[in-house]
Write a structure and sequence with these properties.
Aminopeptidase, single chain, 9 helices, two-stranded antiparallel sheet
């Protein structure tokens, strides 16, 4: 570059040309873990405000997808090529994705005997996007969109017919990205119900017996009674046999003799409920930050009183202002006029199990239409409404029983996969 020197001469100055580009590639645990954790720690999770929810992935950034049948994690790397060929690389974003086969509708079997046809599940290959993060200093640069599109390419290459995401309905930037720029549409609004684990135990009715099932018995009941529920995973056996699954439990009337799933399915009691428990505590921990000293002091006071006077059964707030674990309750269902009461007893049992494991909260997620939404104990201040958005990846889905899943009406229940919570 030539500039006027001011005295009729000229001087030559050097101009440094810096080339910057964003490269999306697969996550490498050996080289990327520490840098990914730095980006994670700089990103808030949940609605903006005084309090923010932080997630500690316990040194395993792919922990939330690694139990799925197929999964991938991508990182966005800012590559700067400066003067003299000096190159720097900085991870500024990441995204996770997984693929599984789930129920998207129901069809009825044909028979020649004139009997009422049996409902059968219609399955589809569904992809799930989660854990999208972009460094606060590098937002509004199209990095999030680039990560989503690259992950969707992998979904398509692996035969996924639909992709969906879950986000907080109040998270406007996330909702805008997916609905306005990525082609997703609002699909379902399930409720996440969260309850603190008290220092005292919750009562369980003496009119109910709770039985822990063998994984094979749990699988048999789920496949027979819940396989037509929306989002039911076809590999439910893998879920129930996973080491993170703490067990499947059924509540039956006291005096009922459990003699295996075959007998139970052929002659079930009038009222019963079922539930499984997933140990999220060993996958990640949560922490609420930004609380005032007053709030922290109040929470501590409730714990002290509950611990000293457990017989009073005072509601108390656990140590959510330091890292805490949780148990996820899933596969809730049952039958009978007292079904929701039995489900409530199962919840009490699960709460006490979480207390023994020193968890901070127990959580579950149910359809907005599910009667369990009103029956399951939860704290409104800790609970929230989720938003699931869906996108059709291929136009060759030809099962006439369902057609376009995006246009279907919500059912009474959904089956929430704990591997993705």
């Amino acid at each position: 570059m030539v500039e006027d020197g001011g005295n009729g001469g000229s001087r030559v100055t050097e101009t440094t040309v810096v080339m910057v580009m964003v490269m999306v590639r697969e996550y490498d645990h050996k080289t990327d873990r520490e840098r990914v954790e730095q980006v994670e720690s700089s990103c808030e999770v949940g609605p903006n405000g005084e309090l923010s929810l932080y997630t500690d992935l316990l040194g395993d950034p792919i922990c939330r997808v690694r139990n799925s049948p197929a999964y991938l994690m991508l990182v966005a790397e800012l590559v700067t090529d400066g003067h003299g060929g000096l190159e720097t690389r900085e991870i500024v974003g990441m995204i996770r994705g997984c693929i599984k086969t789930v129920t998207c509708g129901t069809k009825f079997s044909r028979n020649k005997s004139g009997d009422v046809p049996n409902p059968m599940p219609v399955f589809t290959k569904l992809a799930y996007l989660l854990g999208l993060r972009v460094s606060p200093l590098h937002r509004r640069m199209g990095i999030g969109l680039k990560l989503v599109r690259r992950m969707e390419e992998w979904f398509g290459d692996n035969g996924a017919e639909y992709s969906y995401i879950a986000t907080d309905d109040a998270n406007e930037p996330s909702v805008s990205l997916f609905t306005e720029k990525c082609g997703y549409s609002r699909f379902r609004n399930p409720s996440v119900l969260v309850h603190p684990v008290f220092a005292h135990r919750l009562p369980v009715s003496n009119r109910v017996s709770i039985v822990k099932l063998a994984p094979s018995d749990g699988e048999a009941i789920y496949r027979r009674r819940f396989s037509t529920t929306e989002f039911f995973p076809r590999d439910i056996d893998s879920v129930l046999n996973n080491q993170l699954n703490l067990g499947t439990f059924v509540a039956v009337p006291r005096g009922y003799i459990w003699d295996g799933s075959d007998k139970f399915l052929s002659h079930p009691p009038e009222n019963w409920a079922i539930m499984s428990v997933w140990n999220c505590k060993d996958v990640f921990k949560l922490e609420v930050k930004g609380a005032s000293k007053l709030r922290k002091g109040f929470a501590k006071t409730t714990r002290v009183l509950d611990r000293v006077f457990p017989f009073l059964r005072l509601p108390s707030l656990p140590k959510i202002f330091s890292p805490f674990g949780l148990h996820m309750l899933y596969g809730l269902g049952g039958s009978g006029p007292l079904y929701t009461r039995f489900a409530k007893d199962l919840f009490g049992f699960a709460h006490n199990l979480a207390k023994e494991s020193k968890c901070g909260v127990v959580a579950t997620e149910v359809s907005s239409e599910d009667p369990l939404k009103l029956a399951i104990p939860h704290w409104k201040v800790l609970s929230f409404t989720d938003l699931w958005c869906i996108k059709r990846l291929g136009e060759d889905y030809s099962d006439g029983y369902v057609g376009d899943w995006r246009k279907s009406q919500p059912g009474l229940s959904i089956f929430v996969d704990p591997r993705e919570f």
